[in-house]
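Morning!

This is the sequence you dropped in the shared folder:
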Amino acid sequence: MTGAGWIGSAALMGTWTVPTHAADHLPASLREPFRPDAHTVVLYHFDEGQGEEAHDAMGDPALTLKSHKKALWGTRPGFGSTARFTVREDDANLRIGPVNNDKLELRTCTEAWTVEAWVRYDGFGLSEIRLNHPASYRPRGSGTAGPFAKICGSDDEGFSLPPGIRGGWDFSLHSWLDEWPVRPGLLPAARFIGSQKRAPHSDTGGYVYAGRKTGSGTLVHADAIQQPEWRHVAWQFRYEDQTHYLFLDGKLIWKITPSRRVINDAERNDIPFMVGGIVNSLDPPYHVKTYDFEGEVDELRISDVMRYPVAEKLAIVRRLLHEAGLHAPYSVKFSTDAAQGDVRWELVGGKLPDGLTFNEVAGILAGQPAEPVKERSFTLRATDATGNDDEYSFAVTVAAAEVVTASLPLGFIGTPYRQALETHHMAEPVTWRLTEGSLPAGISLDAKQGELIGNPTATELRILRLQANDAAGQRASRELELKVAPAQLRRIGPDDRTVALWDWQGPSGRYIPDVMGDSELTLTWVNTKGDTRLPRPGWGRYPHFIGGGEGGFVGPQWNRKVDLQTIETEWTVEAWVRRAGPVDGYFREFHYGHVCGTYDNTERGVWELYLSDRGSSDGSMAPGVHFFGAGPEQALRDLHPYSRPEGTVAAPQWVGIRDTAWHHIAWQYSYAEDLHQLFLDGRLIWEMKSPDGRRLVNNRRHLAQFSVGSRLNGRARYGGTFNWLGFGNFFGQIGEIRISRIRRY
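The structure's back. Tokens below.
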């Protein structure tokens, strides 16, 4: 849209009456259509009034919105035409923008952003919210605690089910309140997903909205949308203090600093920018009407600044200080909100670490720290030209040099090995030396480059202590485990003894086929999570699980192949795993993780291959198995080195996984010997015949699903009882899984 378009609309201002509820406080900037300025990233006036497109008023043709099928238009006195939306199963009148556009993914907003719009919501549930107590309110057929009306964004809550990566954001209206700190009604809400490569969790912690029991957040102004009238809503975010601010009619109503930080480094998001709702999936058919907007949207703007004040008088911005390095240059500039005139700074409490000084004129903490400290507290006071002042206590940590390489990948006999060692807070050049232990045969340490290189020649496990020395005289060391595995483990491929094999490769993260070609064994998402595969360099992309349960995969119910019932003599079930931890993506300790199997939390199904540290003396996780027959006397529980140590046949250092590197686990069974065996990285670590005097009997019929990564609470496929935050969900990555009709190791 050209500048003339919005100026012409502004000329109609005299015919529009500001709603009574907003007239007393509506900022002047909201009384007319927005004017593009240097901080405008994108602006949709929706002044076209006809046709199937809406254009960016800044003139970027790549940002053009197109109707999903048929655009609907409305009019608003003083502002011209508007985008109008009705809820339909075919999502007909949504406006759709480009995929993975830097502007619409907020990547050009490097310091802050404001996402805002004028909205008039006239959808289901609004009258019920006004008339009923919200604690008992459940809109008919919604399946939620109230309306969720999407204004705009590039996230779909998983319901468009793209084959690709989900990593966008959402701005919407909500009534999903755990408790009502304001009067019942609709409130603005926001969510930022972020890059999945920053595992374990990039999400800002769920939706940011007033009333959510997040343990933080502040109610600033009590108001809500209760009538189908025009209201202005805005979401502001600032990187400096990682705080989200929600506004209604220019008034700040809620602010919150979630525990998870927004770092907008996602390289890719496969969900398009959408206005007015979500393009629901047709594969399978999802029509989640409660996510679509009913009413009108106008003057949709994204800016790279916070446009609305977040304090009434001077306030120091409550930021977290980045960690300083010992003897390394350090600088932080402090800032304020709502200052009038020049600001004078003072250090009024605490003691700064040696080597750091505070410039009271510029408000800058700088220098080269000369002592290590942990969260050293100091208090600053800021005073503006009118005499308003504020005090706040900050904490600074000065960290000594450290080796940050936490684990070393497996080596394989006959395969070249090369692994760089990494440090933090060390001055170049850094040199290395081996102070304890010895390297596996064929591998050497490049002391200047900080690399382990070579060609391993034998299966072995070595415990090493590597020390780094920097130009400032600092030293740092770390104990690491370096293991060399047999060459045959490096690739798990198909052959004539393979029953089923999932390798996770291919263009889709939604459908993971059996490499052997059995379509009934295709794995699909447990819930609508998106493609969570992360790269393992040199191998492929593999799903990442954060312990929540919704990111798992499910296969068929009662299938003879995955129940191991097509195998008559012996089998191997094996998988590559990379455990994460020790805390999962929801800040819970990780002790037990379902890798794969048909056993679930309903105690139906047949078998489960898992990792567990229960009974471990050093926190390491070892593979284990459950197997169940039709009767209670046929249950084989806890076939696991720590639960049944009498079956352990390897030295302690070989038995468990102590790091977060990739490892190979395998369970073998022979009917003739009634013998169970567990392997870790190709080494036999545990075996037992007829545990508890019970032979394995594979006679169970059930309705449990084969699953990977999530220990189900029942049937789950794109939802269902998918064990949200329940027992047994995996944390980390799972690689190739193979079932064979032979003992391979």
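Headline: Helices lie at 3-10, 126-131, 652-655.

More detail when I'm at my desk.
O.
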